[in-house]
Amino acid sequence: MGGKEQDFINEAFDTNWIAPLGPNVNGFESDIQEYNNVDQCAVLTTGTAAIHLALVLKGVGSGDQVLCSTFTFSATVNAISYQKAIPVFIDSEKETWNMCPVALRKAIEDRILQGSKPKACLVVHLYGMPSKMDELLSICKEFDIPIIEDSAEALGATYKGKKMGTFGQLGIYSFNGNKIITTSGGGALVSNNEDYIKEARFLATQARDPAPHYQHSKVGYNYRMSNIVAGIGRGQMIVLDKWIEKRRTINTWYKEILKSYPFISFLAEPNNDYFSNHWLTCILVENNPKDITRETIRLGLLSENIEARPLWKPMHQQPIFKDHPSYLNGVSDYLFEKGLCLPSGSNMTRDQKLRISECLNKILG
Ligand SMILES: *Cc1c(COP(=O)(O)O)cnc(C)c1O
């Protein structure tokens, strides 16, 4: 926490705004709009709810196909499943680890050949790294397929100076406990199209028609963020850039302490067009004469009670999703085999960092 969160919560209690609406909800939404330079925002219960509503707004329904990064967290794909739609998995490219433009084009052309055009393209900016937006936007424009950005991990990251989440017709952020800022749980849907966000607010509050009694002509959801939770969000927005700076410093620090091991490489910005929030520092442990693997490092750290995790297991490898169509090139499988997320919390102390670096040098030495 940054310090001001409690003040916003106290204000909500003092003024009795204990509801899924109120001044903190409005304030948090305008903070997000201003920070990302986007016209409209609705804060919601979770990032998953935001993805779900984005798909509903784009009319994705039963049997529709949705192009989706295979290298992601399951929440992205679960939202597609809520609509009984079919995810079409697209593999990664090696530079940003995000959706591969070559695989995307192949998938779209093949799906059209087989009789139906995908309804939307869900692009994920994993670990805070921006995707190759110029290429992805131009392919989707060519085929008239709307882009929805899953920016759950990429709040504050930019591509050519523009914030991730604001390139597509709709974008989402997550404020879950593990993200770069948190409201304990929460999410946001953003767009430059006012109609989408108006409709999102309507659907997120049980789709109540304008009438004195309760009347409904659409299926609604209870997805609106509470005014208490939004108070935490307002406090967190004050420190967001500071937290990003800390994550980026941690990333630079890891590069420094691991620079003498040529078999370790980093997920890194390809050039100055890309600005990652470096939510997590991720490495690849490639072949080396000492046969040190990702698992050697993970287990070595674990024996010192330091947790590191493998990268996200690709969705086409998941038991629940494995039978869906996929357009693969081997990249995400390779990343999953060789990759590791290192401890990256914004609140890591000097002592903790020292312990990590000593432990890494012992394992690798
Ligand atoms: C965390 C996350 C989500 C889901 O957000 P919640 O707020 O936890 O529902 C979706 N996509 C990705 C890539 C995530 O990391």
Write structural notes for this entry.
- By secondary structure, this protein is of the alpha/beta class.
- It folds into two domains: 5-238, Type I PLP-dependent aspartate aminotransferase-like (Major domain) (Aspartate Aminotransferase, domain 2, 3-Layer(aba) Sandwich); 240-364, Alpha-Beta Complex (Aspartate Aminotransferase, domain 1), CATH 3.90.1150.
- Helices cover 39% and strands 15% of the residues.
- It has eleven helices and 15 strands.
- The protein has helices at residues 5-14, 23-36, 47-57, 74-82, 101-113, 133-142, 194-204, 227-257, 294-302, 331-338, 350-364, and strands spanning 40-44, 65-69, 86-90, 120-124, 147-150, 158-159, 162-163, 170-174, 187-191, 264-266, 274-275, 281-285, 309-310, 326-327, 339-342.
- Strands 1-9-8-5-4-2-3-14 form an eight-stranded mixed sheet, sandwiched between helices.
- Helix 6 (133-142) links the parallel strand 4 (120-124) and strand 5 (147-150).
- The chain is globular, with a radius of gyration of 21 Å.
- The mean pLDDT is 97.
- Pyridoxal-5'-phosphate is lined by residues 46-48, 72-73, 75-76, 124, 150, 152-153, 174, 176, 187.
Task: Describe the secondary structure blueprint for this structure.
Layout: H1 5-14, H2 23-36, E1 40-44, H3 47-57, E2 65-69, H4 74-82, E3 86-90, H5 101-113, E4 120-124, H6 133-142, E5 147-150, E6 158-159, E7 162-163, E8 170-174, E9 187-191, H7 194-204, H8 227-257, E10 264-266, E11 274-275, E12 281-285, H9 294-302, E13 309-310, E14 326-327, H10 331-338, E15 339-342, H11 350-364
Parallel strand pairs: 2-3, 2-4, 3-14, 4-5, 5-8
Antiparallel strand pairs: 1-9, 6-7, 6-11, 8-9, 10-12, 12-15, 13-15
Bound molecules: pyridoxal-5'-phosphate.
